[in-house]
Sequence to fold (140 residues):
Amino acid sequence: MSWNKLKLRHWLLVALFLVLLAGGWLLWNFKRPASPSLPFDPVAWRQPVAAAGASSDPACVRGAMALDLIDKDILRGKSGPQVAALLGAPDEQDPAHWTYHLGQCPGWGWNDSDLRLTFDEGNTQVKSATLEHVTVAERR
Fold:
């Protein structure tokens, strides 16, 4: 193989690596919340969240507080009434799951985010809390 072909192959591999690296960074940035974790504040939490497709909360304050709730495991073991006293009524609920809409929290704000609480088998206390990103179509 000639020297020019080896050099071309080398540059193509470098370019491919850079494209994959940039794509990975973009994907990671798209999925992460727009702001870092903020300490949970019940007054700020109860502020209205913008309707799907419009964000009056560009920093996603509720999402940042949801990260604090998840990171510190504040909700695990709490009963439904205890959670409702702390967070208010859920936006959606069934016996095993409660969902609180957070607004547009991913890095570029193309998706909405939800705090999703999963209750134990008896539906008596929170087993886990997760942050989920959903499209507007998934919410309908």
About this structure: The longest helix spans residues 3-31.
